[in-house]
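Postdoc handover notes: sequence design on the structure in folder B. Input tokens:
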């Protein structure tokens, strides 16, 4: 495994960043918080955007063709921050160039593309990590530890988001990019897979109310056990709400606010709300959300440095895409769709 250089007694990893849009601006902020990495090159199809991004962040090289970036030999990994439809081809080109890859979600647009990524990454012996950032929210990790430790037994897992679709980039509301299902429901899907085991089948109802893609829908996930999952997505709201709710066998309800990253157990006590508000007052909302990115990227860096498994391997990305494909098919055909084993 390539480790680019040693600096001040520690290992420093070199990163190539592909795509200089809004999410790349957050990734670069995270990398600046990590002492043992350095972004040495960026690319964007808009050369002026790449040039400005590089100048602002004091990055040595910039390109308008990512293939030129991939020719750099001393890259420890490539970070893909481009629109969904480009992910598969960029990732495959990167792994064929023997580069490890960290990619924004989703991994690809189809199971077939995922299979190709997995096959090529195994053939070339490189790591691929998918940005399932919300798994690494402290609240999500805490609830999962309680489940795995036998302290609570879920009966219903509910993930939902309501927001104003006008705040999303226009390309996310096009069928060619997977629409709202691939852009927004993707998060809800991998969270369901994180908590739910042995999904049996999928049913969904919804419509294309405001946009040419499904923008308001509900999904029911049935398992081989007594537990089931519910997903709700709406891009018609003027107020953002994003929650995970876990109803347990003992009658308790745990709610994780994904916007503010806190846990409430019902019944909610007034003093608990006061403590949460006091803590959140000093932590900007955007920073709270990107703590998941920070933790995941740190784990991926460690996986490269110490030759550990990828924290979110492409197989996990493929399973999420399989669930999205079932949701899309259920919405299109109005019937229950078996989830592939």
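Designed sequence:
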């Amino acid at each position: 495994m390539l480790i680019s250089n040693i600096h001040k007694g520690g290992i420093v990893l070199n990163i190539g960043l592909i795509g200089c849009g809004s999410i790349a601006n957050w990734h670069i902020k995270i990398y600046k918080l990590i002492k043992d990495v350095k972004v040495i090159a960026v690319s964007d199809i808009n050369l002026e955007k790449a040039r400005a991004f590089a100048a602002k962040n004091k990055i040595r090289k910039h390109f308008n063709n990512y293939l030129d970036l991939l020719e750099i030999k001393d890259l420890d990994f490539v970070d893909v921050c481009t629109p969904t439809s480009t992910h598969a081809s960029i990732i495959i080109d990167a792994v064929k160039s023997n580069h490890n890859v960290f990619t924004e979600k989703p991994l690809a647009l189809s199971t077939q593309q995922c299979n190709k990524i997995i096959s090529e990454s195994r053939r070339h012996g490189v790591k691929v990590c998918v940005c399932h950032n919300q798994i690494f929210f402290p609240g999500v990790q805490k609830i999962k530890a309680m489940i795995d430790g036998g302290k609570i037994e879920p009966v219903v897992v509910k993930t939902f988001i309501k927001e104003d679709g006008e705040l999303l980039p226009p390309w996310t509301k096009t069928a060619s990019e997977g629409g709202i299902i691939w852009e927004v429901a993707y998060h809800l899907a991998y969270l369901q897979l994180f908590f739910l085991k042995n999904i049996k089948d999928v049913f969904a109802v919804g419509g294309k109310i405001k946009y040419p893609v499904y923008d308001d829908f509900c999904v029911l996930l049935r398992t081989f056990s007594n537990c089931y999952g519910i997903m709700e997505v709406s891009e018609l709201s003027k107020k953002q709400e994003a929650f995970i709710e876990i109803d347990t066998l003992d009658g308790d309800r745990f709610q994780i606010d994904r916007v503010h990253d806190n846990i409430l157990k019902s019944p909610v006590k007034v003093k608990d709300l006061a403590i949460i508000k006091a803590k959140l007052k000093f932590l900007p909302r955007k920073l709270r959300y990107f703590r998941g990115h920070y933790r995941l990227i740190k784990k991926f860096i460690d996986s490269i440095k110490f030759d550990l498994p990828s924290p979110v391997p492409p197989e996990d990305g493929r399973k999420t895409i399989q669930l999205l494909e079932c949701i899309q098919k259920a919405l299109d055909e109005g019937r229950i769709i078996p989830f592939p084993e």
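Context for whoever picks this up: The domain at 5-133+294-311 is CATH 3.40.50.720 (Rossmann fold). Don't rerun without checking with the PI first.
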